[in-house]
Amino acid sequence: MSEQANGNTTLCGEPNGKYDALLLQNQLCFPLYAVSKEVVRLYKPFLDEIGLTYTQYIAMMVLWEKRSLTVKELGEYLYLDSGTLTPLLKKMEAQGLVSRQRNAADERSVIVSVTAEGEALRARAATIPERIGACLPLSKDEAETLYQLLYKVLHAI
């Protein structure tokens, strides 16, 4: 990703053929990091409308789908640890979006469930994916390819 050749970014390095692995522009991780940060920033005004942060939003998406699951399971879906999830879920519980209960079958685990208020929020969030898609400079095919490549990497590491 070091040089622009006819508008295409490449990993070939400097014009003289030397490749410097420690240049920021040659790192795959940097555009992933920067794009992730900027996409989350794009979500902010839409999520502000419904009173959620990005992390709360992705937690709610899992809960809208699964209805109820343990904190550990939610963390596995979101790639978040319980130290991050616990304060997040406490805040969401205070907002009335989720309920948390000790698992009767295993007192060590906590079950998180979406409440009626949390479920009602789903309708208000329904247009967000389409609105975000309209902000991105990708065709439907490009977005699908990017999605597949990102998940290929995610599932391999």
Structural features, described:
- With 157 residues, the protein is α+β, with helices and mostly antiparallel strands.
- It has 2 domains: 44 residues, no CATH class; 112 residues, Arc Repressor Mutant, subunit A, CATH 1.10.10.10.
- Helix content is 58%, strand content 15%.
- The N terminus is likely disordered.
Please render the helix and strand layout as text.
Elements: E1 3-5, E2 8-10, H1 29-50, H2 54-66, E3 68-70, H3 71-78, H4 82-94, E4 98-103, E5 106-114, H5 116-125, H6 128-135, H7 140-156
Antiparallel strand pairs: 1-2, 3-5, 4-5
Domain HTH marR-type: 25-155
GO molecular function, one term: DNA-binding transcription factor activity
InterPro entries: HTH_MarR-typ, MarR/SlyA-like, Transc_reg_Sar_Rot_HTH, WH-like_DNA-bd_sf, WH_DNA-bd_sf
Jot down its keywords.
Arc Repressor Mutant, subunit A; 2 domains; three-stranded antiparallel sheet; two-stranded antiparallel ribbon; DNA-binding transcription factor activity
Number of E-type strands: 5
- The global form is globular
Alpha-carbon Rg, integer: 20 Å
Tell me roughly what share of residues is in helical segments.
55-70%
- Average predicted confidence as pLDDT: 91
Give a short account of the largest sheet: 3 strands, antiparallel
Number of helices, where a helix is a run of at least 4 consecutive DSSP H or I residues: 7
**Uncertain spans, ≥5 residues at pLDDT below 50?**
1-8
**How would you classify the helix and strand content by structural class?**
alpha+beta
Return the string of H and E elements: EEHHEHHEEHHH
Alpha-carbon distance between the two ends: 21 Å
CATH classification, class level of the largest domain: Mainly Alpha
- The CATH superfamily of the largest domain is Winged helix-like DNA-binding domain superfamily/Winged helix DNA-binding domain
CATH fold annotation of the largest domain: Arc Repressor Mutant, subunit A
| Domains (count) | 2
CATH architecture of the largest domain: Orthogonal Bundle
**Side-by-side strand order of the widest sheet:** 3-5-4
User: What portion of the residues fall into strands of 2 or more residues?
Assistant: 15-25%
